[in-house]
From TrEMBL:
It comes from Streptomyces avermitilis. This is Uncharacterized protein. The lineage of its organism: Bacteria, Bacillati, Actinomycetota, Actinomycetes, Kitasatosporales.
Amino acid sequence: MLEDPAAHGVDLDCTMVLHELTGDEWPATRAHAEEFVLPHLREHRVRLVQVARASRSLEITVIDDSRQPQRIVERGPWALWDEYESGGTVPQQGGIRLCSLHAKGNWRMPLSPTTC
């Protein structure tokens, strides 16, 4: 899609990649994204918005919003592990992964529109 967006009917000026932080990503996953994904996003000036839970409530905060992202944010103000500790729970090992879905919060908030 990035190499030939017109062939896919995509306007990269109107494309946004949303990264929802849980705060507990593996270091290797972040390193690989920074090494292999971010250079492509920068080259094609694709907007990367990184969001996280702002607190125990479902409030969301935008950590980074850039067309030239330099790093994958490691953790926001409220991480998945904070949720586990506050509720006295343990991570799920299989199934639907409701814990990580809840940790990402309700991001259906308005983001700054692109020029599209």
